[in-house]
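User: Sequence in, structure out. Go.
Assistant: Echoing your sequence, followed by the structure tokens.
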Amino acid sequence: MDKNLETLELYVPVVDRVHGNAHPEFHGVRRLFEDIAGRVKETEPELDFSREFELLRDITNNYAVPCDVCETYEAVYTMLAELDEAYQARNK
């Protein structure tokens, strides 16, 4: 699940700073990602993140990329979707 975590830890704060005013929903994305990343690092990998990913899907409209954002924003949504898919596949 942590394949993209390091990259996301770099990108998410930057995207939040650059696009947060125009896309305030990204503040919620950042909070949820930081919660997931912190818990992954501190505890066993078998934690339940189903609620966090459900909230991310809701906030991001299933990771739909807004039309007025940069490639980094798009990359963040792509990596979050990949994390979500990996988590869902592992926990079926």
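User: And one key feature?
Assistant: The chain has one domain: 5-90.
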